[in-house]
Amino acid sequence: MTVKTRFAPSPTGYLHVGGARTALYSWLHAKNQGGEFVLRIEDTDLERSTQPAVDAILEGMKWAGLEWDEGPYFQTQRFDRYNECVDQLLAEDKAYKCYCSRERLDELREKQMAAKESPRYDGKCSHGAVITDKSAVTTDEDFVIRFRNPKEGSVIVDDKIRGKVEFSNSELDDLIIRRTDGSPTYNFCVVIDDWDMGITSVVRGEDHLNNTPRQINILKALGAPVPEYAHVAMILGDDGAKLSKRHGAVGVMQYRDDGYLPEALLNYLVRLGWSHGDQELFSVDEMIKLFSLDDVNKAPSAFNTEKLQWVNQHYIKTLAPEYVASHLEWHMADQGIDTTNGPALAEIVTVLAERAKTLKELAASSRYFFEDYAEFDATAAKKHLRPVAKEALVKVQEKLAAIADWSDAETLHAAINDTATELEVGMGKVGMPLRVAITGAGQSPSLDITLKLIGKERSLAGIDKALAFIAARENA
Questions:
Q1: 238-259 pLDDT, tens digit each
Q2: pTM of this prediction?
Q3: CATH 1.10.8 residue ranges in the chain?
Q4: In 150, 278, 325, 385, which residue has its Cα 20 to 30 A from 316's Cα atom?
C-alpha cells in the first residue's frame, strides 16, 4: 500500500510555523516511505477563509520547498460529494435532522457547565422520523444534520506519537455534520476527503486529537478505512506559553522577510520534536532518509530564535554562494539596493557570509559595494580620519591609481603593504583610514578584496572624500 499523507490548512491567515512543521513532518513521512503528499485547503469556514490567505499558504509552502504531489484541493469545490455522503448516512439512520434552536442549545450548555458537566448535545431530536425524500422537506425548515454517534463502547486511537489513547463513546455527542445553510462542517469534510483521497497517515497538531474519535466513528459508519494518526505537540515560545505574535515572527514568510533561508527554517523546525542522536544539522535529503514518526517526541518544544540564527548562519556559510545569492537578491531589492552596477551577489556572499546571521543583515552590510555612502560613520571617522592619516591616504592613493588591472587582489594588497613599509608604520595606520575612506565605516572584509569589489573609480573617489573630510577637520 502506498503511503499517502496530507497537509490541510484553513485559509484564515498566514502559514504559521507550527503548521509548517506539521506540513514538514507529513511531507517527510511520505517521502521517507516513497509515498505521496497531498495539499488540501479546508475552506468551509466561508466567513473567515480568504483568497489572500490561500495565496500566503501556497507561497509559504513553495518557498520552503514543500512541494505537493496532488492538489491543492479545495473543500468548497466538493460540496456535492459531502452532501451525497450526508444523504447516505440519513438513509441508513446513521444521521438525523435536529431542529433545536440556538437558544435551546445555549441554555443546555449553560446548565451543563453550571453542573460541571462537559457541554454536549443531549440527543433531543435523535429519535425523530428519518426523511429520505428531500423533496418532502420545505426550504424554510430550520434544521441541522447530526451524526448519530455510537453510545456504547469506546474508540481507541493508536497514535504514532502519543501511543494508545482511548475515548468513551458516551462522552462524545452527536456532532453537526451539515449546518442550517446547507454547508458541511469541518469534522465531516475531513473524513470524506481523507477517504476519497486515499490518505493512509494523518499527521496533524495535537489540538485535533479530540476530533479523532468522532472522525473515526464517521469513517466506520461509512464503511471507509481508518488511517493511522500522529498528533504533533505544540510549539511554545521561550517563556513556555503557546507560540504567538508576541514572541516575534510566527508566519513562514515573515522568516523569509527577516532573512532566513528555507533550508535553515526546515532544519530548525524538524528538530523541534524530532531527533536523530545528537545530530543538529540535516540536509533535506538526510531528513527524508532518517525521519520517522516513531522518533517524534510527544512533549512540547520551545522555539529559540538564537538557535535558528545559528542554523541560518551555518547555511549562509556552507551552501553554494550562487544559491544563497538567489535568496539574497530579494533582500537587496527590498532594501532598495540597486545591484545592476557592482559585483556579483555570489561574490558578496563569499566575502560576507562569516559576518551575517541573516540575509537581511548581509544585504544591509553590503550596501557600500553598490552605492556611495552618504556620510562617514561618526565613530570610525573620528578615530581614523585624523590629520595624521593624511600622508598614508595620499601615498596609498597614488599607488592604487597606478594599478591598471584591479582584478588581482594580491596586487592591491601589495600597494597597501608597500605604503606601510615606506612610511615605516604598521598596516593598521594605512589600512584603517583606507577602509573608512572606501566604505564609510570601520568594518569590512579584507581590504584587498573590498577594493577589488568596489572598483577603482569609486575607491579612489572615496579616498578623495576622506582627504576632504580631514582637510575640513584641520580647518575647523
A1: 888 888 777 766 889 999 999 9
A2: 0.90
A3: 320-370
A4: 278
